Amino acid sequence: MDNWTGGADEWVLIEQARAGDPSAQREIIEHHERLVAATVTGILGPAPEVDDVGQETFIRFFRALDRFREDARIGTYLVRIAINLSLNELKRRKRDRIAVREAEERPAGVSCLSDGSRSAEAKAIVRQALGRLEPKFRQVVVLRLIDGYSVRETADILQLPQGTVLSRLSRGQVRLKAIVDGLAAVEESGERRIL
């Protein structure tokens, strides 16, 4: 969630950034880059495109400053841009996967768990499961459970009714649990075979 106090200071920065002040732009980026990165990573998973999407989020934000509404918060606006760009990236990936699938068969990879901590393994399984979750559920789960937005804030960001957010959150959690359980079972059976 956006930990910046915002308010009047936020509007001063907006006006300075509109005037082309690089220090105001840098301050906006420094205050919100973790929020944008968390949102993009939550939707795309750890991927090389995360940095590009994050940078493009700020580029689009600064280009659209003239349309920035007084009632909006910078963090909310940036998250909306980050979500849209992340969803576009997911669509691009899907098109690329279809093209690759038509061209060749991918061999199934064998994952071997290191002796690292269980929590690192659990986080990896959850990240992998989030990547398999449908985007409409993933974005609600990421915003609500990972980024910490309230249901109302999530609804505002996604421009959805609160009931839809609650429904997608509930269904997304059920689907995510099923995916995590399946991945965990595969990991456990892989460990047993290695031993």
Characterization of this structure:
- It is a single chain.
- This protein is an all-alpha fold and 195 residues long.
- It has eight helices and no strands.
- About 8% of the residues have low confidence.
Secondary-structure map:
Layout: H1 8-18, H2 22-44, H3 49-63, H4 74-103, H5 118-132, H6 135-146, H7 151-158, H8 162-194
Note the beta-strand portion: under 5%
- In round numbers, the mean pLDDT is 80
Shape: elongated
Name the assembly state: single chain
Number of strands: 0
Reported for the largest beta sheet, the result is: none
The number of helical runs is: 8
Q: Name the structural class.
A: mainly alpha
Output the helix-strand order: HHHHHHHH
- The separation of the N and C termini measures 42 Å
Detail the poorly predicted runs.
Answer: 102-117
Assign a percent range to the helix content: over 70%
Radius of gyration from the alpha-carbon trace, in angstroms: 19 Å
